[in-house]
Write a structure and sequence with these properties.
Blueprint lengths: L2 E11 L4 E10 L2 E6 L8 E4 L4 E4 L1 E6 L12 H10 L2 E6 L10 H14 L3 E4 L15 H7 L4 E2 L8 H13 L4 E3 L12 E2 L2 H6 L3 E2 L1 H18 L3 E3 L5 H12 L4 E5 L1 H5 L2 H6 L15 H13 L4 E2 L8 H4 L16 H10 L6 H15 L15 E11 L18 E11 L2 E5 L2
Parallel strand pairs: 1-4, 1-5, 6-7, 7-8, 9-10, 10-13, 11-12, 13-14, 14-15
Antiparallel strand pairs: 1-2, 2-3, 5-16, 16-17, 17-18
Helix pairs in contact: 1-2, 2-3, 4-6, 6-7, 7-10
The structure holds zinc ion (ZN).
Length: 428
Amino acid sequence: MSSLLIKNGTLIDPTQQLEARRDLLIRDGKVETIDETINAEGVKTVDATGLIVAPGFIDLHVHLREPGFEYKETIETGARAAVAGGFTSVCCMPNTKPVNDNSSVTNFIIEQARKAGLANVFPIGAITQGSKGEHLAEIGEMKAAGIVAISDDGKPVVDSGMMRRALEYARDFDLPVVDHCEDCCGATGWAMHEGQYSALMGLKGLPGLAEDLHVSRDIMLAEITGARVHIAHISTARSVELVREAKAKGLAVSCEVAPHHFTLTDRDVFESRYNTNFKMAPPLRAQSDVDAIIEGLRDGTIDAIATDHAPHHANEKMLEFDRSPNGIIGLETAVSLALDRLVHRGVISLSRMVELLSCNPARLFGLARGTLKAGALADVTIFDPVKQIKVEAGQFQSKSRNTPFDGWELRGAPVATVVAGRLVWTAR
Ligand SMILES: [Zn+2]
């Protein structure tokens, strides 16, 4: 098989406490050696001078839309967006049509991803059949087919008894439960965060309390079941505090944050003048929530950065604000936002960023990745921490364009992506 030599880069790998200039030699899809200087004859070489070489980035939360909504995204276009964004692996949510609640859908996703041959795609199975919250899905059968977690993402599991049973099953199958925390608390049909801006805009709001109630309930359920609960797209100050307390108690609770939730607030929704690319679930919150999220990223309460990449067709996003679907794409802007907003502002170090985007996601979902130790699968992300870029949604690999960051200028960007030793993408 082929070989690849990545020379002169700064290798950052928190799993071996490494942050130093090193060469990296890959053979047969695996890391062979890391050393100060490696010379290998006749081997394809990538010059990474001035660049960071890290274990491949893993996105725990994407929507690839296939089967059922191929006009928004396919597994192939989603995988292309992933590698263009510096992600070597993505975990895809089950809210397709049909829902991934049995092994035939799981097998279909794995097969389409294999055909695309770009990023690794790890399916997440549904918790309940059709994600309707009534009967448990075929969890054991899907686990055998290759799911890495279960979730009814997009919808909360409203029935606490059902959630308890799901956690007990998941514990027995050693699967994390990815938790979409949204207690309706009377707020159906909301369009944004409940606060001064929703009042000013005349839009129905969803209070932060809706998230906090579910996070609180599910932490208690994690405690009595011993199951692993992973809070998806955390967005409120109170929820971050609840996770911090759960971790202090030693519970198996983790959480992820989406780049838009550490970058934007409900004030940006107001200033966007009803731009539906600022509409997502959970909604963009208040500045005090964003401040708490930044602190959670800094102190280790937040385990991972995940995009919640949610492609929608332009026609769907052109509806009135309150009628437009929730969600924005994120795969091709996440790394630049993390560098610009977190690293360059001194919130986190580069090594902590690699933990949030690679080592921790691998550990949380039990993926044999997130490290560049000798013998590991050679998934590698190469990025330039200082490259100035302008976000151009028109140039994205994703089929969809629904991003609030179009035209933004950011510092730092991915430049090359290696999956199983194969260079699958390089920046123009
Ligand atoms: Zn989602």
